[in-house]
Amino acid sequence: MENILNLLAKIVGEDFVSNHPEELFIYSRDGGTMEPHAPEYVVMPRTTEEVQKIILLANKYKIPVVPLGAGLVLSGLTIPLKGGIVMDLKRMSDILEVNENSRYALVQPGVSEGMLKAYLAKNYPHLRHSLPDAPPAATVVGNALIHGSGHMSQIYGFHSEMVNGLEVVLPTGEICQIGSCSASPYWFSRAPLPDLAGLFIGWNGTTGVVTKLALKLYPKPKYEDVMIFLTENENYIPYILFKVTGTEMAQDVIVMAQPKPDWIGGFQLTSITFTGNSDEEIRFKRKTLRQSLDEYIKNKEGGFMHLLPDMKASFLEVPQRSFTLFADVKKGGGFEYVGAMMPIEVLPHAYRGGIYIAEQNGTSYTLMMRVIGSAHCVMCAYAFGFNRADKEDVMRAQKALHEANQLALKLGGIPWKAELPAQQLIIKKMDPNTFELITSIKKLLDPNGIMNPGNWETQ
Amino acid sequence: MVKLRFDKNICYSCESVDCLVKCQYLQLNIETARIEKLKILKGEDTFILTECITCYACEEYCLKRNHPFFQIVELQEDKGLYTAPRPITHQQIKMTSPKGRFEVKQPLTKPAISLCVFPDMMKKIDGPLFQRGTSFLGGDFFCNLVFLHFAKMSIVKERLPKVIETISNHLKKNCLDELICFHDECYAGFTCWATAYEIPVPFKPIHLFHFLSQRLEALKSSVKTLNQKVAYQRPCSSRLIPETQYLTDKVFSLIGVERVQRKYDRDSSLCCGSILRMMGRDDLADDIQERNVSDMVNAGAKYCVFNCPMCYYTLSEKVSKEGILPVMMVDLCHYALTEGKT
After folding, report:
1. Same domain, B64 and B99
2. What is the reported pLDDT for B339?
3. In 3D, which of B105, B130, B310, B104 has the Cα closest to residue B208?
4. Does any domain span residue B1?
């Protein structure tokens, strides 16, 4: 297979392909608990045409290809389970267009959340995109393709719903435009055409390599503020979310719980962020949001925390840096979470179950429930910290994650960006005809089965 | 368990019922005040227990110093009439709990200063005013008087005697006998509350403004008058120690600022609103803050001076939006000692 290295070098240049063990080591793992598995090659294309050539080469030799953005998914989706080529897309990092009027940005797959945020702040300060609570190095495309969510998801839904269009290199090498861009110079919408974006979103890179993505942008209000509603009874969570989102005034709503520090332990903190273009608008929204929870305040079951300026600044921070502090609570920097999509009515069970699992497994935890689309669903994240250098601790976290996945499914939720064992749990529970359809589509698009093999397959 | 020392007969024989009649929030006539006061003395239900905003002002209005507010708080707690939502109260209790693990730089150097539970204030303890003193900070040194706002006198009774003991032990070990109290509340805890509950305090609490005025006098030649008009946001806890009020004017005079004449100052000061928000009484907080800040603007104040960090955190943004600069008293004194430029 030595000649593959040379063939890849001919496509991207010698500097951008490697089979050195130290580099393969890095690409064999991510930050989570999944077992590492090394690729044979790492390649870093710069253009769509280079991606296309690599895919054609992989087809010819039937070599697996795993597309990778920042590799921060934490659930092993970019670990090359069957070896082959990891296609690192970080060099494709151009922001190709910002359409101010139709409010979208067209980006390459290596553009990070931080890059887009900084670019907009500098060049289009009146525009913004929905940021996930991920490190700034996480990629915009990667996050959208895994159905990510962020600080505007309460209003506008999943980041995948903010995708206007795609350019995809299919597993067979064809370059395909998806959405309005297929019939127009503008990347303004996926409607009214047959919505083919669904063939590439949520598939864990098994149906092609996205080389361009148009993401919706939104107006950036002048002011933002946050209130934290405090309760001690998890049974109230669904109704609180129902009431707050019912005002249609909150930008982001998150319920948080963790055992430490003491003043958080045992409480549920519902963070409600809202924005406005004037003091008057902010005051009105604050009052309306407050009033939505009046019944809890009157019967003394819940109240708004008085936030000191530092605390307020921390709660308003996007992405939330406090989550990274949690990642090192146990030292050794291990951190993984089960983010399950759930209907809001099951959240009290999810809350109790998550804490029970963490306590039974002796792991530190953070629970975070982010409302998506006016409480149509919630991304419920059970995050467990562990010490990477402590094998037993890693196994404890793995067990907790697996149990959290089982709990999510039992409650009617679905694990998000599911790692391999969780995919198996989902497939087992899934309507067999649905899974058959998934399998058929994959086979149709990827007859040689080269794209991120192992994912969305029965083991 | 420590017990409030107060004389019911003083209240029974009180003609004026100033504690309730002068209350700016209840607005009672003398007849209603008498009826409701009797209910308090008999331990009966009265709307006073649920309507009280816990501004502490009645402690000052009672010229007999018979602790009308402490009576209210005791009765609120006896009847389980907690002022704030339960989670808020419980969180405050957890947040301020003594941890039993603290570090105080040894040996202690003079002046020993209590910074209450406000780490932000640490950076203000420097320069020629403070030299290199020792600061006490955190739950193990916290007076806990804030729980008067939450109808939780039991927490103060449980914690404050231990805090006094802890501080006293530290001071004794270093042959010190004075503690500068940065926050009015701590000073009030070690003086007014400790006296009311007959807790001996083996050290001498010094009010921050007393210390500042002494230092400013000592550094007189370096002080440059600021020539500014200021509004003072009087903290609730200063209502427990009205005898210290002259010190505010003394410090202002030493640094050459004018405390503007306004409606809501001195005896008629308004609450900053932070406690009301924790209680969930936001409409009242909005109203009070609006009246208070408008009053400052109308009086021509350029600065709003605070001594309580909570008042500062609560009102800073609001006064700033009206063109008034928020400043802690200690910072104003630092300015006067540097360039006199503000």
Report:
1. no
2. 58
3. B130
4. no
